[in-house]
Amino acid sequence: MNKYQVILCWSEDDQVYVAEVPELPGCVAHGATQIDALQNANDAVRLWVETAREFGDAIPEPRGWRLLLACAVPGDSRLEREAPPLGAAGEAPRCGIRSTRAG
Questions:
Q1: How, if at all, do strands 28-31 and 16-20 pair?
Q2: Is 92 part of a structural domain of the chain?
């Protein structure tokens, strides 16, 4: 698991979850589920860092902040076990993000 910030949101246009790593320019992944998107983001970070090393580019240090994600699709009981829903039934999925100091 990397220590970079990951922002996870639903893309209505693409019908996938998108995971962006803002500290690493261009480092974005997606997946059919939240878990898939986060796993793909970890792979993308690894590849980003490997490529930066290969070309001698600077690799930013993680800022030391961790994003806690609380995302759920109303009506999807599998996700509601992981995080409470943030919208009413029938609404599009939404994400709530709270940042805390990593420790």
A1: antiparallel
A2: yes
